[in-house]
Specification:
Blueprint lengths: L1 E8 L3 H21 L1 E10 L2 E4 L6 H9 L11 E2 L3 H7 L4 E4 L12 H10 L3 E3 L3 H17 L4 E2 L10 H8 L5 E7 L2 H11 L4 H11 L7 H4 L2 H15 L8 E3 L7 H9 L3 E10 L5 E10 L12 E8 L4 E7 L4 H16 L1
Helix pairs in contact: 1-2, 1-12, 3-4, 4-5, 5-10, 6-10, 7-8, 7-11
Length: 343
């Protein structure tokens, strides 16, 4: 039985659910893979806790479900921050699940990931911010220090878009890709197309928990653009940044156009595209597009995301996920951990 020591930074929607998944899957992980995943350190915005013998994950979950902090865990270090935990903990992997924070340099996630890689820890993260801002730097750090960096949960929730493009399309030329990597914009546009008033649609998205408090991140297309940058770097090997993406959000759409398209069987989706030019570069864009029903992504439901890869030798591949809750997104961390363990 291999014991893998984990440090978990971030105990929000994804971090807490990852802990719940560990509790549910512990027996299977031991029997099928011969591993014990032990969380030895955890951090949220109010404190940290560290025990080299392993934390009681059920107690951590109970604290978070009750609205509390790991600062209330016996032996917790109140006032300590995530970076100090990563700097001091003896662990094999960092799981970085803090909130996306591109407006402030993707911190604290970016520095925590840098530090873990420099200390020789593998890193798993669904946090797209650090990958958007420092994709090449972080991959170079991992290479130099002989560790793995996995981030399959950064692009489209639980959909293995990165894995599909990176691994399953080996040997192919990818001429282009299209993706609907942002769930909430499709959800809102479907409500508007059905005649729901705009303020009501936005409020409903907030109540469903799919629209962040800072709605501009989703509505102005930044989330989709960031995910496109990661996907292009990871699957096309193309050094893209946010500045390379022509970005249009959904808030300037005319509701009447949405209604008209819906009646004709079209679905508006915030489509992220990478189209290969003759010189080998790619035109990158994010914009709301009315997709016909025959388009591979033209029938996506309100809680679905998808990706399409056009290749030379594998044809055109489409993958779609239905994600009514954040559980699949949290489960990507387990998938990436197991991937590292099996390397």
């Amino acid at each position: 039985m291999r014991r893998i020591r984990l440090v978990l930074v971030g105990l929000g929607n994804l971090g807490r659910r990852f802990c719940e998944i560990l509790l549910e899957k512990d027996t299977l992980l031991r029997a099928r893979y011969g591993i014990e995943l032990a969380i030895v350190g955890a951090a949220d915005s109010r404190g940290t806790v560290y025990d080299p013998l392993g934390l009681d994950v059920a107690r951590v979950v109970a604290l978070k479900r009750a609205g509390g902090s790991v600062a209330l865990y016996p032996g917790a270090r109140q006032g300590a921050n995530a970076l100090s935990l990563v700097e001091e903990a003896e662990a094999d992997m960092l799981l970085e699940a803090s909130p996306v924070n591109l407006r402030h340099g993707a911190e604290p996630g970016l520095t925590c990931i840098r530090t873990a890689l420099q200390r020789g820890m593998h890193v798993v993260t669904p946090n797209k911010g650090p990958l958007v801002l420092a994709y090449r730097e972080l991959h170079d750090l991992a290479l130099v220090h002989g560790v793995k960096l996995r981030f399959d949960g950064t692009v489209a929730g639980g959909l293995p878009a990165v894995n599909l493009g990176q691994r399953d399309l080996r040997g192919a030329e990818i001429y282009g890709l299209e993706a609907v990597p942002n769930l909430v914009t499709g959800y809102i546009m479907d409500l508007l197309a059905a005649g729901v008033a705009r303020d009501v649609a936005l409020e409903q998205a907030h109540e469903e928990g799919v629209l962040e408090a800072d709605a501009s991140w989703d509505l102005d297309g930044w989330d989709a653009a960031g995910k496109l940058v990661i996907l292009v770097n990871a699957t096309l090997g193309y050094n893209a940044t946010l500045d390379d993406v022509a970005r249009t959000g959904i808030m300037d759409l005319d509701d009447a156009d949405l209604v008209s398209a819906y009646k004709r069987g079209y679905r508006y989706r915030l489509l992220a595209r990478a189209e290969r030019r003759a010189d080998g570069t790619y035109a990158l864009s994010v914009a709301p597009v009315p997709l016909p029903p025959e388009h591979p992504l033209g029938r996506l439901g309100q809680k679905q995301m998808g990706v399409v890869f056009a290749t030379d030798i594998y044809g055109t591949l489409t993958a779609i996920i239905d994600e009514p809750t954040p559980v699949p997104s949290a489960a990507t961390m387990l998938r990436d951990v197991l991937d590292i363990c099996e390397d």
